[in-house]
Amino acid sequence: MSNGFKFFSGSSQGNPSSSDPVRKNLVEQNAQQNGFKTSVFRILQRFMSANKIDGGSRTEAEEKVYSWLYALAQSEKDIVFEYVRSTERGLSFTEAERRLQENGPNVPVEYTFPSWWHLLWNAFFHPFNIILIVLSALSYIANDATNGCIMLGLVFISVSLRFYQEYSSSKAAMRLSEFVRCPIKVQRCAGRVVQTELLVQVDQRDVVPGDIVIFEPGDLFPGDVRLLTSKHLVVSQSSLTGEFGTTEKTADIREDQSTPLLDLKNICFMGTSVISGSGTGLVVSTGPKTYMSTMFSNIGKQKPPDDFEKGIRRISYVLISFMLVAVTVIVVADYITSDDLTESILFGISVASALTPQMLPLIVNTSLAKGALAMAKDRCIVKSLTAIRDMGSMDILCIDKTGTLTMNSAMMVNHLDSWGSTKEKVLCYGFLNSYFKTEQKYPLDDAILAYVFTNGYRFEPSKWTKVDEIPFDFTRRRVSVILETDLNVKHKSNHTLNRILITKGALEEVLRVCTYIEHVDRGEIATFSEEDHQRILNMGEDLSNDGLRVLGVAIKRLETKRSSTGIYDETVECDMVFLGLISFFDPPKDSAKQALWRLAEKGVKAKVLTGDSLSLAIRICKEVGIRTTHVVTGPDLELLNQDSFHETVKRSTVLARLTPTQKLRVVQSLQTVGEHVVGFLGDGVNDSLALDAANVGITVDSGASIAKDFADIILLEKDLNVLVAGVERGRLTFANTMKYIKMSVVANVGSILSLLIATLALGYEPLTPRQLLTQNFLYNVGQIAIPWDNMEDDYVKTPQKWSLKGLATFILWNGPVCSLCDISDLLFVWFYYGAQSEPLFRSAWFVEGLLMQTLIIHLIRTEKIPFIQEIASWPVICSTVVISAIGISIPCTSIGYVMGFTTLPLSYFGFLVVLFIGYFTVGQIVKRVYILVYKTWL
């Protein structure tokens, strides 16, 4: 933006605008910003407010854009040319080329695509991967190539999946440059002596500040533009606001500071398009200095850190610390008892491998992939697998109203006379206007025609002939048709009349041309009084407050002799008779209310974030069951300080007239201050900021391409019920992942403590390195079935969040239960069989440890009594049976003989039955006490 303000330096030729108060204000403001005090203040302010959401206030970059555009909107055209250092003839080709070199390509965001090796390094450099690689290397040193290959394979799967996801998502911002890429008609000047004005087509990327652009219907504005001329110019700003409909723009106006930025009539914004009309404009900002750039400048930087990933990293650090301590103690203890350093080190490596939850990457990614396949059957495309897990933690869903809660189409509601009574005559003339109108058909016309045809009205349009049409424009805001019929109608003056003027449009503009009012019941026409005027305006306001859009209808009978040619102009719209008004509504979807109710049952609160009007948003929310006791608008949010902003966002359920940046700040406030996991459902370009920042960005297949780029999940149907299924899938995925994490960490920590106690008590290794690694391998293979486990209905009713503190508490409560089971086995073998036979003890310890680690999933996976009140899924049952059978049979086979095992007596298996009954009994008691204290389990 500094280039756009170079004229403040005082180097311009002359100073014809020195008396202009707008320019003077900007000059003083810019000078103050260069002052030492202001600079220091800004640095301190930025330092103190780092990592905070600054309420409803704007960033420094946004303030520059706002100040620049407001200054131009308030200035005369000749001053605007001076501001951007251009002329009424346009720029020369040489100057345009120089500015292009100076300002760079005209794209809204300069995005640097990260190199593949950088993404690969980020995916690889993770504490958990480092642990597995180190242990794999140590396994090769210990001559256990099989276990080493398995751990390297797990690292490869984890790194590959993460690299693919990040590489795909990083391409999204690159497509922003394609959004507004198109040929632009520009006026340039050429010639050394006599300059000639030329109209040329240039690529949108080559447009520079100071260019004069010419636009027609269908054209996109290549930058922020100050209008120079306009003729019936109608522009769609839905790409920025998300609002359904169009807005009028005109060059012949000077705005003031009180007008909202997007409501400025003489400013058009990059990315918006021309619906009708034509004109010329001066490009005042391009590329990263446009209003659109303030929307997308923070793309890719706003998403909060993933609590689950942070938790995994912290677990890795805890495991590394515990591993270093435990392995060191075990190696020292084993060396003291065995006096064999090499064997003690190998045993320590085996213990470290057993302590690591090696299957965690595979379990997590398998659970997520399974959830993605299940959601695909529900007509959902999952772009980011981690979004499934985040959906399970989501507790607030922000919804953009248009096309999500509503049908995104107009539906006619009623046709009322001037006293609020339903009258068919009002509908008849409104229908004839829409039926014969040919220029600029709007959805409201289709709604009137559909209402008439579907309700069986017979207005016989074939009996009418169209004579002329006065098309809609945004100055008059109404459309008129002149019709002729064969039926002769007698007027009071006995003139024969067979032509009629029917006008339909904005209520205020229709009332402006009315002199009479018709009493439809009595068939009388009376003079239009001030009382009538106020009553009709109040009625229209009441309907608007109910979320309805209102059009007025008026008629006027014409004499044939007044225009023998049948050509009329706007002057004929006078002394008309007001008939009544027609109301319209964008109806809510039938499925929306049910889906929102189901989400509320599962602890997901809905907030509506829309660019539409507050009254319309309230009407829709009432229809679908969203509370409207606390509502706020974007302009109101702009006036709040930081604390008030956060409190208002937290309390409000309906936030209307929001700009894209305000949607972003609302999402960030909910995340950082409210500590919520936020989902955002939107389908427009104006939703891209919020989609990118939300924990879960959701859009629909028919949404804007940029919205689909930044979304994590794409719905193939605009149905919120699909999200309900996604929330359930997310919570199931989260639950199965937490089952494995809690189960593996509890079992591994308990087993390592048992190994340490047994080593000190026995004087020799309770298991050799090979035996320990085999036990660990079989146990890990048995956990592959966990992603296919089911979950209790009560668990998926509430949002689930990661808690490292809760995990530590869980381990402290349940880890000793595993150690108690192992120590009981140690004491039984010691006193009943004697501990002199190392093969017998190691065989018993191997079988008991494997069975305990295999069966613990059934104790951990449910709050209820396992095998009695709750049974696992058949894949988990089969896995338990198969691994247990293999573990029991190994000591009886030749493989067990080679590994140093011996056959166990039958009495030991009887003891194991009693031992595991006691284990489940004690574990269930601990579970119930834990739930009683902490009110949760998984």
TrEMBL record:
Keyword Nucleotide-binding: yes
Gene3D superfamilies named among the record's database cross-references: Calcium-transporting ATPase, cytoplasmic domain N (3.40.1110.10), Calcium-transporting ATPase, cytoplasmic transduction domain A (2.70.150.10), Calcium-transporting ATPase, transmembrane domain (1.20.1110.10), HAD superfamily/HAD-like (3.40.50.1000)
Reaction catalyzed: Mg(2+)(out) + ATP + H2O = Mg(2+)(in) + ADP + phosphate + H(+)
Source domain of life: Eukaryota
Compartments where found: Cell inner membrane
Region (Disordered): 1-22
Biased composition, class Low complexity, residue ranges: 9-19
InterPro entries: ATPase_P-typ_cation-transptr_C, ATPase_P-typ_cation-transptr_N, ATPase_P-typ_cyto_dom_N, ATPase_P-typ_P_site, ATPase_P-typ_TM_dom_sf, ATPase_P-typ_transduc_dom_A_sf, ATPase_P-type_domA, HAD-like_sf
Listed SMART domains: Cation_ATPase_N
Single GO MF annotation: metal ion binding
Keyword Transcription attached: no
Major localisation: membrane
Gene Ontology CC terms: plasma membrane
Family: Belongs to the cation transport ATPase (P-type) (TC 3.A.3) family. Type IIIB subfamily.
NCBIfam families xrefs: ATPase-IIIB_Mg, ATPase_P-type
Stored PANTHER family: CATION TRANSPORTING ATPASE (PTHR24093), MAGNESIUM-TRANSPORTING ATPASE, P-TYPE 1 (PTHR24093:SF128)
Stated name of the protein: Magnesium-transporting ATPase, P-type 1
